[in-house]
Design a protein that fits this description.
mainly alpha; two-stranded antiparallel ribbon; 52% helix; elongated; disordered N terminus
């Protein structure tokens, strides 16, 4: 005869629950070997105390209810426990305080919250361990938070599955409605693996996780080879994982591109022939090309690299390095650096590039690739650069705390030198100063003839 295999520890917990009920109903001493449920060793006694001392309020209430049901079935109309009135023992010298005199809150703080052993808690309270175990049944103990794969949680799933996950349920939801296991998982709360097992037990055919996903070979070859799309974008369109698309490509004999930057969309994307040649040189075959173009477009509205870097919240050397990379990719000089009494200004090739970047179709394309690089303001001229809040507060505090000699003396105020005036002018955009440097504005006019069209 085959017996159901019990999970590890179930027989031990079942025997400890029997001992708890037996002691609750009879008040017997389990140290007496004459009882059938007596302790067999000191380790057996310690294991039972660990079980009884950690019973949650819900489990303890269930055991009390089961014991009361046993008495009702036997026709016994008596309470589970009974204690004589305290005044009948007033003339006796009892070994310790009564159960009602022990602070239950202190017991809960020491044992449940502080996780102290029974013996240590009894020492702090000035009572014996038997006193603590006696009042521990009155202390509320919250239920333990089990993991998703713990035995009690799985047992609860199984109990719910008997009433919910029937064959009629799978025929209605999985076969007729065409819902996936992922959708059923979201609706019922059962894991997909558990749902698949229940469906197979009811005779419902469920594809295994190792079964290949149906991906058309011709469509996948066109998307990956011809259109140069990445596995990630194809998987996002199909609603599957990247490895599912990779496995389908291997089954259909589609060669994979080298890993790394060679498979990134920015590296393999090719712009249309209607895009100016300089923009294609700056973007194709590299990373962050659109970011460098939009930063160059924003920086040319300022008289110096320093002012542009402060507005873009970037380091000055990093901005110069990006512009040099842009000039190296395009193969031409794009701007003239600022000099004394001469602001930064674009070259003829740089002005043509800026005019091309103002085209509506290129602006929309650049906004999709580098949405965080466009400064606020009108397309034809940039707003006043915003100084970072921390720097502005520090500069304001320094100006308020420093008193110049001209203020301390009673004479006329000193006039700032031309160097200071140049420093102030470097913080103002060209559009606000009326400078002579060429300013590129986006308009409906065609680009200059110096823009290289392919």
């Amino acid at each position: 005869m085959l017996h159901r295999r019990r999970p590890p520890g179930e027989a031990r917990r079942h025997r400890d629950a029997q001992r708890y009920l037996f002691q609750l109903l009879t008040g017997a001493d389990l140290h007496d070997p004459r009882h059938a449920l007596a302790f067999s060793s000191a380790g057996d006694r310690s294991a039972y105390h660990a079980f009884a001392d950690t019973l949650t309020t819900g489990l303890r209430g269930a055991l009390y209810g089961h014991a009361a049901g046993l008495l009702r079935d036997l026709g016994i109309s008596e309470p589970l426990t009974w204690a004589p009135p305290p005044d009948c023992c007033a003339h006796l010298n009892l070994p310790g305080p009564g159960p009602d005199d022990i602070d239950l809150d202190a017991v809960g703080r020491l044992i449940i919250t502080g996780k102290l052993p029974i013996a240590d808690a009894a020492t702090r309270l000035g009572v014996t361990a038997k006193h603590v175990r006696l009042v521990l049944d009155r202390v509320p103990r919250p239920a333990r938070q089990w993991g998703k794969a713990a035995a009690p949680v799985v047992w609860q799933w199984q109990q719910r599955a008997r009433t919910i996950l029937t064959r009629e349920f799978f025929e209605r939801e999985y076969i007729k409605a065409g819902k996936t296991l992922r959708q059923l998982e979201a609706e019922t709360g059962f894991p997909r693996k558990f749902l698949a097992g229940c469906a197979r037990r009811h005779g419902i055919t469920v594809p295994a996780a190792s079964d290949p996903a149906p991906v058309d070979a011709a469509w996948l070859r066109e998307q990956y080879i011809t259109r140069q799309r990445s596995y990630t974008s194809i998987a996002a369109e199909l609603g599957v994982r990247d490895m599912t698309v990779i496995a389908a490509a291997r089954r259909h004999g589609i060669p994979s591109r080298p890993s790394g930057v060679h498979s990134r969309p920015e590296m393999i994307a090719r712009l249309g022939t209607d895009i100016p040649c300089d923009i294609r040189r700056a973007v194709e075959g590299g990373l962050k090309g659109w970011h460098r173009l939009r930063r160059f477009q924003a920086a040319t509205a300022f008289p110096t690299i320093e002012a542009a870097a402060a507005h873009l919240s970037a380091h000055q050397s990093a901005l110069v390095h990006q512009f040099r990379r842009l000039e190296r990719d395009i193969g031409a000089r794009l701007y003239h650096p600022s000099a004394p009494r001469q602001p930064m200004r674009p070259t003829r090739r740089g002005a043509a590039l800026l005019q091309a970047l103002c085209r509506p179709d290129i602006e929309a394309l650049a906004a999709g690739q580098a949405p965080d690089q466009r400064p606020s303001g009108h397309p034809g001229g940039w707003q006043q650069p915003r100084r970072p809040a921390a720097k502005a507060q520090k500069r304001t505090a320094a100006q308020a705390s420093v008193t110049t000699p001209a203020v301390r003396r009673s004479g006329p105020a000193r006039v700032r030198g031309s160097g200071q005036r140049r420093q102030d002018r470097s913080r103002v955009p060209l559009s606000a100063r009326g400078g002579t440097a060429p300013v590129v504005r986006c308009s409906g006019s065609p680009p200059p003839s110096s823009v290289q069209e392919s």
